[in-house]
Amino acid sequence: MVGLFLSNPIQMPTALITGASKGIGRAIAEEFARRGINLLLTARDETLLQQGTDELISKYGIRVAFLALDLTSTDAATQLASWATRQAPDLNILVNNAGYGLSGNFEKYSALQHEEMMQVNMNVPLELCLLLLPHLRRQEKGYILNISSSAAYQAVPGLTVYAASKSFMLSFSRGLRYELRKTNISVTAVCPGATDTDFPKRAQVGAKAQKAADKFNMKPEEVAKQAVEAMFAEKAEYVTGVVNKLGAFLAWLFPKSMAEKAAAGIYEL
Ligand code: NAP
Question: Which residues contact 27 (CB under 8 A, 6 or more apart)?
Fold first, then answer.
């Protein structure tokens, strides 16, 4: 674990972004930076985090610190929350973005592999909310932005546990949002569809799924722009892109078995 520690704490507004080394998380960092919001970035890849930090500081003149951390490690959420609140006592935005998928049959993976993914996709976001809510409550305005997925709207054979983890994130966000409705904190769940990042590579999706994604891929910059706008507009739930909005509607409209069969075809099951 390596971090860049600042001698003076960052003043608000400040956003903590998980999975900020690349992809959607890196693009969300840029969206905040252009609004003058200071940043705390985390992911595993220290080199990418250092590069991103240097670029954002030189381009926007904001304050940025990073912590290289594997979210599957013991007490990762506690370490991250305590680092973040030391760096920025007035931290007011939490973005739970880090996540990944594992494609193929459920039985292809060990319990540990499934559990590690669930740790990154669900447990750490849940723990970070719990640990950081007291800090967010003390701010004039607090935001939680949870990155779910269009996979939250249906079972996805071939990405079964991933889709279930994203359904969890959507339902968790909506429930928490309601509980916090009389507070200063707004919770938003954003559901991107296929986005041009390293996600398919890490999930090891097959050629057919990659081809389908390539047809509809959005750029991470566009997803990040829509996500950050939805967060500041205090939306409960937001699906990025027209095609993905239509997909979520069709998944609701048609029998579940049809949507599941279509997804299974893409994942070649
Ligand atoms: P990505 O380019 O692979 O980025 C994933 C981020 O999560 C990286 O910064 C990665 O950093 C971090 N991460 C992964 N495992 C981690 C771990 N064990 N500990 C700490 N950080 C970890 O993929 P992306 O598409 O931007 O994904 C961002 C979010 O969008 C995810 O929650 C994903 O489920 C969601 N999403 C993506 C798509 C899509 O099609 N791309 C669609 C819907 C939803 P390191 O590798 O440096 O650790």
Answer: 220, 221, 223, 224, 225
- The CATH number of the domain holding residue 148 is 3.40.50.720
Tens-place pLDDT, residues 124-174: 999 999 999 999 999 999 999 999 999 999 999 999 999 999 999 999 999
For the chain, the C-alpha Rg in angstroms (whole number) is 18
Q: For ligand 1, what atom is nearest to the CA of residue 71?
A: 19
Query: Does ligand 1 come within 6 angstroms of the Cβ of 195?
Result: yes
With respect to residue 5, please indicate whether it lies within any of the assigned structural domains.
no
Average pLDDT of the chain to the nearest whole number: 94
Q: Which domain holds residue 53?
A: 14-266
Q: Is the CB of 217 under 6 A from ligand 1?
A: no
User: Number of structural domains, the chain?
Assistant: 1
- Average pLDDT rounded to a whole number, residues 98-124: 98
Residues 2-21 have pLDDT tens digits of 444 444 444 469 999 999 99
Q: Ligand 1 in contact with 192 (CB < 6 A)?
A: yes
Active-site residues, by number, are 162
Cβ partners under 8 Å of residue 221, min gap 6:
27, 30
Contacts of 68 (CB under 8 A, 6+ apart): 1, 2, 3, 42, 43, 44, 45, 46, 49
24 lines ligand 1 (CB under 6 A): yes
- Kindly give the distance from the C-alpha atom of residue 201 to the centroid of ligand 1, in angstroms, as a whole number: 11
Residue with tokens 């701010």: 139
